[in-house]
Amino acid sequence: MLQLESDFVSAPGLPHVPYTRRPTWFSLPLALLIELQAWLWTHVRPMVEAFLTLPLWRRLGLWSFAWLSRRPPWQAMIVVSALFIAFEPPKILAYYWIARHHWISGGLLYSATKLLEAGLVAVIERACRPALRKVPMYRRIYIWIARARRWARNRSRPWRLRLRKWRRRMRRLARPSPH
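^ that's the sequence the OP posted. Answer follows.
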């Protein structure tokens, strides 16, 4: 039986991806994008959870969680897939606005869409997870995402270490002199 970790930290049974010293220039942007999305969700998750604790959303959330958790695997997969598809038109509009040099409106629409998508997908995926784990395609996608996150973490490691050293050095320089 395949065991799946809850937050894509690691997936048991996956081969270890060796750390490479220098990231290649074509893979670095993808790795940074994956890491940025994971970092953003870490910081946005408390806001989403606080929003979902409001009385109206709490009742709606409990009802939808109960309803979604009773779905058979194929219906759960349709719900999650439809959610991803529903968020594509606003992202395409954001790309169009950015291409037309409406940077701020395009960036704001894209950011709002991604945040809303991440929050809803996380809530719905968590409700449907027991049923989704029975779907082979979902398991393959889940494992692929776990591998992609591990790959991104390994690729961006030298940059994250340099950034940490630079931040420490800046903090040291920003401290007032003891004289």
